[in-house]
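New here. Invent one.

***
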Amino acid sequence: MQGILYEEASSLTFIFVTLLLGGLGAWMTGRACAKTWRPRPVMAVYVAILSVGIRFIHFSIFSGTLLSLHYYLVDAIVLEAIAFAGFQFTRARQMATQYYWLYELTGPFSWKGRG
């Protein structure tokens, strides 16, 4: 997978920076956007900015390539997926909690109408 998903010599760098640091930031971004009732496209813009920051961490600490469209897109796709999961997880709980007379949880990421 080296060269496709990450450029560093070790996959641990990709796991630590992109999945752990960036993933936690993306989850919290999705959660914050859901809690403040922002739409998904706004969250996508926030995560695109977060992806630039994660790319800079790869560059500054681990001597990665800063201006690489390929690796930026890999980071952005991974972080967008995590952010959308955090958004949907929070939104499902929001709908079932705030509108308990209308909706109930059907899973960690979904809800349905009562009745």
In short: The first helix runs from residue 11 to 35.
